[in-house]
């Protein structure tokens, strides 16, 4: 099966020289590119020699991948565009990538430039490596696209990449937490345990009792699980946060009306819902204008895919 090279394209409202600087200066490049933790240029043998560099990528748990690269910048295109060709690789066995090649292009447009990249690589470990690449390649494409959007926002709005990434990963972490909360609350107490307190609270509010109350609680559990899925699938997280800011006080008041004594229980709905309410407000504020890989074009012009 033929592998498609990774392609990412984004428009940037800025001059070509500014984007060139932020992508060719290693200290600026490593700030916005999620794929690299550090980039170090090596001395050139001559002015016309390719620029060699070393890079490191931290992958967590104290592990990191170190590799090498060579780049050649072209400045004299007749249409005013620039191209930077890249040859890269690593000898570390922990990396599925062994060696690859690609390029960056900077194409002047009426209101700025189009910045794009295309690259491909060889994998190690034969058939097993190609299987791993079925998952690894989309992640690399996503990381490249997200990085390009961070660069775009840095150039156009002046917001530092570090601030953008803190906001992005904080928003993602909060979303995963809310997914877990709603999924767990819907599945365990309502569907699996059919907890008597859940049934009792529902009965107090609705006057429905017995098997009908148990069934209704189960339906509520299913709805909570579906809402949990929205935290992973729905892109506009601010809408979900806004909904929760409105809903959590209502849920807390309803629980107190149904059973005032629960306010004295350890880890009770009052403190639990208050915590989630505050976290929803924080998430609502953080989720404004978060960088996203979806702002990039991921296929070449004329590509049917």
TrEMBL record:
Recorded superkingdom: Bacteria
The keyword Kinase appears for this protein: no
Pfam families: DoxX_3 (PF13781)
TM segment ranges: 165-184, 212-233, 245-264, 270-287
This protein's UniProt keywords: Membrane, Transmembrane, Transmembrane helix
Protein name in UniProt: DoxX-like family protein
């Amino acid at each position: 099966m033929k592998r498609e090279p990774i392609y990412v394209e984004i428009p940037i409202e800025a001059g070509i020289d500014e984007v060139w600087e932020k992508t060719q200066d290693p200290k600026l490049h490593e700030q916005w590119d999620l794929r690299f933790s550090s980039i170090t240029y090596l001395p050139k043998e001559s002015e016309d020699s390719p620029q060699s560099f070393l890079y490191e990528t931290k992958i967590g748990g104290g592990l990191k991948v170190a590799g090498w690269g060579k780049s050649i910048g072209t400045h004299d295109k007749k249409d005013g565009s620039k191209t930077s060709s890249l040859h890269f690789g690593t000898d570390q066995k922990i990396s599925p990538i062994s060696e690859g090649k690609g390029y960056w292009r900077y194409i002047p447009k009426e209101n700025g430039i189009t910045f794009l990249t295309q690259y491909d690589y060889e994998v190690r470990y034969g058939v097993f490596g190609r299987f791993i690449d079925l998952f690894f390649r989309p992640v690399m494409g996503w990381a490249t696209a997200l990085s390009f959007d961070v660069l775009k926002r840095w150039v156009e709005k002046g917001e530092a990449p570090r601030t953008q990434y803190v906001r992005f990963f904080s928003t993602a972490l909060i979303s995963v937490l809310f997914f877990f909360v709603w999924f767990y609350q819907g599945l365990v107490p309502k569907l699996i345990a059919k907890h008597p307190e859940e049934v009792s609270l529902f009965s107090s509010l609705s006057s429905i009792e017995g098997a009908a109350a148990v069934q209704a609680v189960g339906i509520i559990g299913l709805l909570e699980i579906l809402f949990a899925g929205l935290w992973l699938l729905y892109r506009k997280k601010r809408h979900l946060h806004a909904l929760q800011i409105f809903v959590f006080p209502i849920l807390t008041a309803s629980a107190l009306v149904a059973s005032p004594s629960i306010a004295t229980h350890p880890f009770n709905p009052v403190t639990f819902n208050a915590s989630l309410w505050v976290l929803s407000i924080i998430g609502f504020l953080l989720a404004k204008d978060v960088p996203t890989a979806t702002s990039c074009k991921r296929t070449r012009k004329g590509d049917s895919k």
